[in-house]
Design a protein that fits this description.
The chain has 416 residues and is mainly α. The chain has twelve helices and four strands. The chain has helices at 14-35, 48-57, 88-111, 119-142, 148-163, 170-192, 198-227, 232-236, 240-259, 270-288, 355-367, 370-373; strands at residues 68-74, 80-85, 376-377, 384-385. It is globular. The two termini are 30 Å apart.
Length: 416
């Protein structure tokens, strides 16, 4: 799985974490059901945002679980069932993920990265990319989405990179990615029946694509410099300070675009807000090495901007002006996101397994590297456990609050 938004469970309430996982599993199963088992490797953390946006704009039922179905046991969920997202949002996310994954695969082939430098592997990868292009186009057509705009953007990328040199504007290189993600975000408004949202979501998608491209370049800069591979920052002569400024501007633009987006209800846009405001900001801090969990240590104040100089980070003077709660409004009030009728309700406590069944699940989780690589459910008790090789980026903040759940009286520095 790849993507720039990698939320930590320590920073999310149980309800939000369950909703995020429902969209992730929904994307994975939509890829499987529509395009076969192998297509599931195109599952990615960023693609599920398309599914999240569709749901956030669609009126949900009183239980906040509209568009869900119960999925069977999966090794990555500790062989337990779970509600997963379904419908047009998950299918659009699958179509977009397939086309962009095929582009990423072609990029690896052209750059001769790792095993892709071998001719048999490269030939097989090109064949898979062609099949995924056709599969994504079929799914897109069934949803009224023309994936040709994605393919055109991917096709122009190589020529733009070849023509780029010192002095070339960095945004010229990121334009194809911006165009592709803008089209995907905008179509979520069409599927949700909210045409007025098309323009702000197109802007949010354009800026999200810019961030994705820039952060990928920043994270790969050291390795690309060592190997001599092409990198947009090196090719255009852009320093990290300018790249950070562009990222901060994009973050601010996404916040303003979401402010102009009409979501289905007061609680429907919460996961969207957490992912595209809080977690996306943390992704920028992580890429530039300027932050971990914002709740560790002293919270930044309005008079003292947070490390890294980001004027739009939570708690900074120009912080988020359009959080989901008003001043003094508790998210746990009746009808609020954390109260009765909120979105979504926490899952029921799992039942304990017997010794033999638990051992079988344990063996399966070992084979899939679930125990060592990911936070997981205990095979016997069902309690949430850290991975053996934990790579959480929140500096041990297991007791920290979720700033979107506790801002009523919380001193975490978040103004939402």
């Amino acid at each position: 799985m790849f993507g720039i938004i990698r939320p930590c469970r320590h920073r999310m309430s149980e309800g939000l974490a369950a909703s995020w996982l429902a969209h992730l599993c929904g994307l994975c199963l939509a890829l499987r059901d529509g395009h076969g088992q192998f297509a599931r490797i195109a599952t990615n953390y960023d693609g599920l945002i398309v599914s999240v946006l569709v749901e956030a704009q669609t009126a949900a039922g009183a239980d906040g679980a509209a568009g869900r179905r119960k999925a069977g046991p999966c090794p990555l969920r500790g062989m337990r069932t779970a509600p997963v997202a379904m419908g047009e949002g998950a299918r659009l996310a699958a179509a977009v993920s397939l086309v962009l994954a095929s582009a990423k695969m072609r990029d690896h082939v052209e750059d001769a990265d790792g095993a892709f430098a071998r001719r048999p592997v490269a030939a097989a990868a090109r064949g898979v990319a062609r099949r995924w292009d056709r599969a994504g186009a079929r799914t897109g057509d069934s949803l009224g989405f023309d994936t040709a705009v994605l393919l055109d953007a991917v096709g122009r990328q190589g020529a733009i990179e070849a023509a780029a040199g010192p002095g070339t504007c960095l945004l010229t290189v990121t334009e194809p990615t911006e165009t592709a993600t803008a089209a995907a975000f905008a179509h979520t408004a069409v599927l949700a029946g909210r045409p007025a949202n098309r323009a702000p979501l197109e802007e949010a998608g354009r800026l999200f694509g810019r961030l994705a491209h820039l952060l990928d370049a920043v994270e790969d800069l050291a390795e690309d410099t060592r190997t001599g591979a092409w990198n947009p920052l090196t090719a255009t002569g852009t320093d990290l300070a300018e790249a950070r400024r562009l990222c901060d501007d994009a973050l601010h633009g996404i916040r303003l675009a979401l402010r102009d987006t009409d979501f289905a209800g007061s609680s429907s846009g919460r996961l969207t807000h957490v992912l595209l405001v809080h977690e996306l900001g943390r992704s920028v801090d992580r890429a530039f090495g300027t932050g971990g969990c914002s709740h560790v240590g002293t919270a930044p104040s309005a008079a003292s901007p947070p490390p890294g100089g980001n004027p739009y980070a939570p708690g900074a003077p120009g912080g988020n002006p359009y959080g989901p709660y008003g001043p003094g409004q508790s998210p746990y009030a009746p009808g609020g996101p954390g109260g009765p009728g909120g979105f979504p309700p926490p899952p029921e406590p799992p039942r304990r397994r017997g010794l033999i069944m638990g051992c079988l699940v344990y063996a399966g989780m070992c084979c899939t590297c679930e125990l060592c690589c990911r936070e997981h459910d205990d095979p016997w008790s069902g309690r949430r456990r850290d991975s053996w090789c934990s790579n959480c980026d929140c500096d041990g903040c297991s007791d920290c609050c979720d700033c979107c759940d506790c801002c009523d009286g919380c001193d975490c520095g978040c103004d939402c």
